[in-house]
Write a structure and sequence with these properties.
The structure is a single chain. Helix content is 29%, strand content 36%. With 380 residues, it is an alpha+beta fold. It is rod-shaped, with a radius of gyration of 48 Å. Strands 4, 6, 9, 11, 12, 13, 14 and 15 form an 8-stranded antiparallel β-sheet that branches. A 6-stranded antiparallel β-sheet has the order 3-16-20-19-18-17. α2 packs antiparallel against α3.
Length: 380
């Protein structure tokens, strides 16, 4: 029995050895082929200038403001304009009782007439005296006195003429007119009010609203950079307005004025811009947000939000290059709409992979056909 077991064991060992030898003679199985590249969505990074925009608080001011005052003393008879309405230069706004001024004018004209008659008489006497002194009928002294009397009479005429002009001006001032074209504000006096007693009483204000100013201040440190930009390109500054409801005013203004000194209390420089205001939507006194933009910023690169991956070590994007995903470290701190503004790491034109945070550096990838020509604008 033991010999039978030994025989079976020997037979098994012999068969195993034969199998191993047979296996050595067979060729190795073919190597498995690598997996196909992973299809990914891509977008082309685009270069864009960094906008240098500063938001400041400004206040609107009328282009021209005329404070209408009473120039003569009297009783207001009538307000002849509609409050808040547009007026033209020379339009009648108020009428002060003209009767006293008309009487003064009449008296001055009468005085002028008397002076003219007296001057004519003195002239006749002076001419006659010159003839008589030749004949020795009167003394030279008398002739000179008659000549001086003529000159005094002529001077009296000039004085009377000046009084007439003054009286006519006073009568004209009784009709209070607008000095400029614009919109007349509410009346500060009513009919029956006594005005102009001691000084010119304010009656109303007329403001020209088209165009219109916006006054604002900029920190002195930023103003230095602005000065350099304007020196290189005087037309490079753009000023926009954002209204109180958040909407952007549809017209762009131009920088008109910069102060020549820094306010030591606020360390700011006063600036002024000018805006067209044909619809008179902008009113003096309104506070607005001034978006002050100038060209010449650094060139950044825009990429879609989903192309950027952030880790504790920083930010990176995966770029499709030569059929492989390559990790590129970037600096991106500013989000502009749905796009990251990359300030370092990309130069523009790269094919960035969307949602590529799970890819490995060097992994084989291929752009999906629908995304092969995508741009930042297309993918954002």
């Amino acid at each position: 029995m033991p010999s039978f077991k030994l025989t079976l064991k020997a037979l098994a060992l012999s068969m195993a050895a034969s199998g191993m030898l047979a296996g050595c003679d067979k060729p190795a199985p073919p190597a498995t082929t690598s997996s196909a590249p992973l299809a990914v969505d891509i977008a082309v990074a685009t270069a864009a200038l960094e906008p240098r925009t500063t938001v400041l608080t400004g206040r609107l001011e009328a282009f021209r403001t005329a404070e209408v005052r009473a120039r003569v003393a009297g009783i207001v008879e009538q307000r002849t304009y509609t409050e808040g309405a547009a007026v033209k230069a020379g339009d009648l706004l108020f009428r002060i009782d003209p009767a006293p001024f008309a009487a003064d004018l009449a008296a001055a004209e009468a005085e002028l007439a008397q002076a003219q008659v007296a001057a004519e008489s003195a002239g006749d006497i002076a001419r006659r005296s010159q003839q008589l002194v030749v004949d020795n009928s009167i003394s030279v002294q008398q002739s000179r006195q008659d000549l001086f009397a003529e000159k005094r009479a002529k001077a009296a005429v000039l004085s009377a003429e000046a009084k007439v002009r003054s009286a006519r001006l006073q009568l004209d001032y009784a009709s209070v007119k607008s000095p400029i074209a614009g919109r007349a504000r509410r009346a500060l006096v009513s009919e029956g009010a006594m005005v102009g007693q001691d000084e010119g009483t304010p009656l109303t204000t007329v403001e020209q609203l088209d165009p219109i100013y916006v006054n604002f201040s900029q920190p002195a440190s930023e103003f230095l950079a602005l000065g350099e930009a304007l020196k290189d390109s005087p037309g490079a500054a753009r000023v926009s307005l954002r209204l109180s409801d958040g909407s952007l005013y549809k017209r762009v203004g131009k920088l008109l004025f910069t102060d020549t000194a820094v306010d030591p209390k606020t360390d700011t420089v006063a600036l002024r811009a000018l805006f067209d205001n044909p619809d008179q939507l902008l009113l003096p006194g309104l506070y607005v947000q001034v978006e002050f933009e100038r060209a010449g910023g650094r060139q950044d690169v825009l990429i879609p939000q989903q192309a950027l991956t952030r880790t504790r070590d920083g930010a990176y994007v995966m770029v499709l290059k030569d059929g492989h995903a390559r990790q590129v470290n970037v600096q991106a701190q500013t989000l502009q709409g749905k796009q990251w503004r990359v300030s370092a790491g990309l130069s523009g034109g790269e094919q960035v992979i969307l949602d590529g945070g799970a890819l490995g550096d060097g992994q084989a990838v291929a752009a999906k056909p629908s995304a092969a020509t995508g741009t930042v604008a297309d993918r954002s």
